[in-house]
Amino acid sequence: MSIPTDVASLQIMAEVYKKKNLQDILEKTVNSLVEQVPYIHWAGIYFYDNASTVKLMAASDKEDDLTWESNSELKFPIKTSDQDNLGVLVVRTREAIAFDVTDVSTLETIAEAIGELGFAN
Known about the structure:
Elements: H1 3-17, H2 22-36, E1 42-48, E2 54-59, E3 72-79, E4 85-93, H3 101-118
Antiparallel strand pairs: 1-2, 1-4, 3-4
Helix pairs in contact: 1-2, 1-3
């Protein structure tokens, strides 16, 4: 199941390493995950405004986040290179068993790159 996630990861990492605009990177991330990975039905990136509130910065579908329809959800922290929490990458699926270990490690790498490289510009 991890090949589609790897393909999406390559597209996303290319944007990150090109040091594109942060919002472009975020939008490319959520859209690539949903377009390339058949079992990811929604992806979103939230950033913390302060300690108690979060703001949706990018989503594959802003109208329908599948909160009530998803069977599985994974969340990955987005941190700076100093390990400050910036936000979270969330992926959701309607499938009962969709994600495997390699999906998790690839998505962790994407979240890490967004935090470290996306905020290094």
